[in-house]
Design goal:
Keywords: Membrane, Transmembrane, Transmembrane helix. The chain crosses the membrane at residues 7-24, 30-46, 58-78, 90-109. By secondary structure, the chain is an all-alpha fold. The protein has one domain. It is 80% helix and 0% strand. The chain is built from five helices and no strands. It has helices spanning 5-24, 30-48, 50-54, 57-81, 92-115. Helix 4 (57-81) runs antiparallel to helix 5. The radius of gyration is 16 Å and the shape is globular.
Length: 116
């Protein structure tokens, strides 16, 4: 199976963006950015090891659910520790993560079904 270089480049750009946010506003959503960085690195590994994860669909789904729950908990912890009050817009991150998971799932498994 051929690796999709453009997807790997997009994930690397996302990792670069997340690292850059630590220098821009280091006090806002700190735990959430750390968790997002960890999960993005793991998704990069999933993209590189497509052969392994293409045969283990439940593992990818389980990891997706764990990442959404962990990000939600991190957002709640970050928002409760903030002094400026609760910001509901932070939960839009979960929508973007869910969209990323759906695209990754479709990319990983629909490509493999077409190759068979």
């Amino acid at each position: 199976m051929k690796k999709n270089i453009s997807t790997i480049i997009v994930i690397l750009a996302l990792i670069g963006f997340l690292v850059a946010t630590f220098f821009l506003q280091y006090e806002v959503l700190f735990l959430t950015r750390i968790a997002s960085l960890i999960f993005t690195i793991v998704y990069l590994v999933i993209e590189v090891k497509q052969e392994y994860f293409s045969t283990r669909k439940p593992l990818f789904i389980l990891f997706g659910v764990i990442s959404i729950l962990a990000i939600a908990v991190c957002i709640i912890l970050d928002e409760t520790s903030a002094t400026d009050g609760f910001n509901a817009r932070s939960f839009m991150l979960l929508v973007f993560i869910f969209i990323f998971l759906v695209i990754s799932y479709n990319h990983l498994y629909n490509k493999n079904d077409a190759a068979k």
